[in-house]
Write a structure and sequence with these properties.
Length: about 200
Amino acid sequence: MKTVLYGGAFDPVHAGHVFVGHEALRLMAFSTLILIPTGLPNPDFDKCLSASDADRVAMLQLAFAGVPDVEISDVELRREPRPSYFVDTLEGLRPRLSAGKPVLLLGEDQLLSFPQWHRYQDILDQVELWFVPRAGRHRSGNLEIPARALFDINPFDSLSSTLIRNRLQQGLSVDGLVPASVATYIAGHGLYRGQ
């Protein structure tokens, strides 16, 4: 059985994340999908988190409720406060991984910045790299990184957590952009309002 590792801020998890997770399980039959919410972001990538770790995990649990062969790992969230490097995450997950190389699933934007990841060559030695394509990108300038596209066209290409947070800050609806259970959670906990 193959293990697929799919990490991200999931701040919040949205319909595109859910679609990618389902497609990974469908296309890589007999797989386990491990969702890995980001811990303290690497300062080199100028990213910050809006929701708490507990809220992001709760939203992932709601979004993937009832989907077999999906786990949520808190390996990055349990790490002492320091930048979250994926090479350390791999080491922390090692006892839970099946035999053979796991698949690391990235967005195409992450693939393009992959050579900037801490000890990226060590990661490449330990995983099969797959990516979710973005319109207009198609790996330009990064052909030295061996990676396969999960599919050809991403129907959620323009959807992002940033877009959802912006809509919520403006008091706009996110119906259809996030699972209904996640929308209810966000409203009930007052997340992303007035940030």
